[in-house]
Design a protein that fits this description.
Blueprint lengths: L2 H13 L52 E12 L9 E12 L9 E23 L5 E24 L2 E17 L7 E15 L1 E4 L8 E16 L16 E13 L7 E12 L1 E3 L4 E3 L8 H6 L7 E11 L3 E10 L4 E11 L16 H8 E11 L11 E9 L2 H6 L6
Antiparallel strand pairs: 1-2, 1-17, 2-3, 3-4, 4-5, 5-6, 6-8, 7-8, 8-9, 9-10, 10-13, 11-12, 13-14, 14-15, 15-16, 16-17
Length: about 425
């Protein structure tokens, strides 16, 4: 086997389960989300202001807590398979704009009040490879890499069901996929694909004053579903050797608890999520075909009970937030077919949020308060733990920064926020 083929097989076996050996572009199964990688990868049902959440569900970015215009940018540089090689890495970049309009009338059945647009780029560099001929002669070196350039659009809808407010995000991601195994034409492939998904959430406020505690507890259950990598098969040499893209279904539920005090601040939050993932491909020794819907995912066994099977990967995670400044995360990932079972951990720190304010100053006098109102800069870290020292994923760590400019409409118009 030629060296680049050996490398490719290693990448494919470690990106997914053992049942995906005949598929292509499996680098698309590597999550770039710094947040959700700390929660076991259970991101399909979690509303998010992070652009990387579109990897799990394009509908997840259609949620903003209040009207306004927000911009965000994030980047990360991650060594990949550090337990196997030292020259392979993943580079991720994403930028996003989110716009939320105020609700016009409670009498209107359905209102489209949020629009989000995101562009992202995932680049997996597999390093320089030595190419040899059939007789072992040196044919030079080449660089192996995989690239996905993505654009996501998500719309948020608000309605009421039996007087209960329901928000739903519906999103679509378009992908341009490039695979460069060698410098000759037989080692290159280009494809287009798309993802789609929806996420529905309701929020039920509970007045804590009735229980001897000040403030309001917001209880927000959510449900999410998505399908990724829908597109034509990958052709390197001829259509007779075409392989399918790793079309993937994800389904999950989550619960968020947000304690809001009398000043409309969130001193504490907690969320928990559970999800399942299945490759929508049935394979035999000589053929394959795509399946639909949930595939082999069973809601009770896989999502609720978190009982993994040979065909379905299960994921779960939780997050604890303190004063909208510090977040602690953990999760579990179980893939029986791929023989991958590990725990994840993660933290996030709002670097601007930790700067102390002058409690006696007004908003106009307090430059720190104004800065925190308009700008967020967070450091995010996550890693896989509990993996054997000899496993290629041992030592995998994700870290990067996320920058947000909030209330951009106020910033441009010189409007002071309501306090």
């Amino acid at each position: 086997m030629k060296p680049y083929k050996q490398l490719l097989v290693s990448i494919l076996l470690l990106c997914g389960g053992g049942s995906v050996h005949s598929q292509s572009a499996l680098f698309l199964l590597i999550s770039p989300s710094l947040t959700h990688n700390g929660m076991g990868g259970s991101g399909v049902s979690l509303p998010s202001s992070s652009a990387a959440s579109t990897y799990y569900n394009p509908g997840a970015i259609a949620f903003l807590s209040e009207p306004g215009i927000n911009f965000s940018y994030q980047s990360s540089h991650t060594p990949w398979l550090p337990g196997l090689v030292d020259d392979m890495w993943i580079d991720y970049r994403a930028s996003m704009i989110q716009i939320r309009l105020p609700l016009t009338s409670e009498q209107q059945l359905i209102q489209a009040n949020t629009l989000s647009f995101c562009t992202s780029r995932t680049y997996l560099d597999a390093g320089l490879q030595q190419y040899t001929g059939a007789n072992g002669d040196d044919l030079g070196t080449f660089r192996t890499y995989f690239l996905s350039e993505n654009a996501s659009l998500s719309v948020g809808l608000s309605t009421r069901v039996f007087r209960i407010p329901v928000e739903t995000g519906i999103g679509l991601t378009y992908k341009q996929i490039f695979q460069h195994l060698t410098s000759n034409q037989d080692g290159k492939a280009q494809n287009t694909a798309f993802d789609w998904g929806f996420l529905s959430r309701t929020t039920l406020p509970l007045k804590m004053a009735q229980h001897g505690i000040g403030g309001i507890l917001e209880i927000s259950p959510s449900l999410g579903y998505s399908v990724s990598n829908i597109g034509a098969e990958v052709i390197f040499r001829s259509s007779e050797q075409a392989d399918p893209l790793p079309r993937t279904a994800r389904f999950g539920v989550s619960l968020e608890l947000n304690l809001m005090d009398s000043h409309l601040l969130y001193p504490m939050s907690f969320s928990v999520s559970r999800s399942a993932e299945d490759l929508l491909i049935n394979q035999s020794a000589s053929s394959w075909k795509y399946t639909k819907g949930l595939g082999d995912i069973n809601f009770i066994n896989h999502v609720i009970r978190q009982s993994a099977s040979d065909d379905v990967i299960v994921k779960s995670g939780w997050e604890l937030g303190i004063a909208e400044t510090f977040w602690l995360r953990s999760g579990k990932y179980a893939d029986l077919a791929g023989k991958v079972n590990y725990t994840t951990i993660g933290i996030e720190v709002a670097l601007i949020g930790i700067i102390p304010r002058d409690p006696g100053a007004t908003y106009e006098e307090n430059s720190i308060a104004r800065l925190q109102h308009f700008v967020d800069l967070s450091y995010v870290y996550s890693s896989y733990v509990g993996i054997s020292d000899f496993h290629p994923l041992h030592g995998t760590r994700f870290q990067g920064f996320e920058l947000s400019v909030k209330h951009f409409d106020e910033l441009m118009g010189g409007i002071s926020p309501k306090k």
